[in-house]
Amino acid sequence: MGGPPAPAPAPAAPPGPxxxxxxxxGVAAPTGGGFGPDAQATLRSMANSISKANPGIKxxxxxxxxxxxxxxxxxxxxxxxxxxxxxxxxxxxQQRADAAAASAQTREDAIAAKMAGLEQQLATMRAxxxxxxxxxxEVEGGHDNARTTSARIGADSRQKVAGTNADAxxxxxxxTNTHRDRNTDATNSARTEQARIAGGxxxxxxxxxxxxxxxxGGGGGSSSSAPPKFVEGQVYTDAKGNHARYVNxxxxxxx
Length: 255
Hints:
The chain is mainly alpha-helical. The protein has three helices and three strands; from the N terminus they run αααβββ. A three-stranded antiparallel β-sheet has the order 1-2-3.
């Protein structure tokens, strides 16, 4: 006699969903379910649902959440699941490429902006340098003009001074010659007069010494009617060294 029959084994529980990615612990699951049969439409709906439930979610986190949702889907053929995972992977690759391109474009824009700023700075520096060069040329031109004007004024002044000095030398020479000529004439005249007077004095002195009347005297013995040529009060000397003073038309011996 046998005992009661053994209870039938409990049916195996269906496999549970795969463990969630720890990086997605803060990502809420999409709501609403009801994925359509079209894989592309399902992926779009899944991305929209996750994005709506998690505003501001990053692309990398979104794609990881989509892969986890694909793994948790029920009633999906393995081929469909693999296809959807591959699509998500392609989207992730595309997103990274777009991000890299945008980053590169941003860097290019930044570089272009920086280059434009540098070109502007260079243009400003060139303008400043050109202004400096122009000012330098103007200053140098002014110095050249000043030097030319100064040289011309100096040459004119030297020429005028030289002309004035020449005129002064000519005037001095002319004046000196004139004075010399006048002095010579006066000296010659004086010497002639002195010789004439001395000659007459010697003759009259000889007459006085011999007791004869002088020229112009009132003695009646002279036939000359020439006027006296002697200076009243002047002392005269004859050829022998005798001295006589001319007084009132006569020579008076002087000892």
